[in-house]
Amino acid sequence: MHLAGRARLLAGRRHPCDGRQPRLRPDLHGLARPARAVAAAGRQRDAESAGRRPRARDGHATPRFREEVTVYKRILVPVDGTERGAAALGSALGLAKLGGGTIVGVHVAGESPLLATGDIGGPFYDAWRAEADRQGRDALDYVVRRATEAGVPCETVLAPPGPPWEGIIATVRARGCDVIVMASHGRHGMAARLLGSETQRVLIHCDIPVLVVR
User: Fold this and answer.
1) What is the CATH number of the domain that holds 141?
2) Overall domain count for the chain
3) pLDDT tens digit sequence for 10-37
4) Where are the transmembrane segments (predicted)?
5) Residue 25, SS3?
6) In 10 A of CB 10, how many CB atoms?
């Protein structure tokens, strides 16, 4: 049927609710629609273009769906002076700048190789501990420099020697961190089975999100 003929046919029908004959206007597809529907659609388009939330007939705003972005405020970054640790730090700084967060850098020296000999507190252990602390301070100084250049607030923690995953989780709890950004050192095969993965242990024992940078 021709569009003009269809519009005349629709115009001749009676409105089922009030018995009145509705005024019809052609829509974008050339079909006739009641004038009130056309006006309502126009008001909704105008509201959306002006950035306002359109309202339903009962006066309540219609829901608007938007993408939610998780913002982390205290971001823990374990560092060990390696290139992989530096890459994790770069990712953490970007995350902190996105949400106005603070970087918490932590260095855990690990367990002393002298534990097997029982030489704890002797001169060899003291020399190892002094060197481990020096390397840890150097790694944390690097965190401070990068954070200062990026304009991100920063805290540092030189954890006592021990299993790195234990020191990381202890620092998370002590400093109130809400996410960990750490590097995976990529052990494979027999080395991964025998030595285990500090990252894997953190993932198992930690109750906050962990972002692994490879």
Assistant:
1) 3.40.50.620
2) 2
3) 455 554 445 555 454 554 444 444 445 4
4) none
5) strand
6) 14
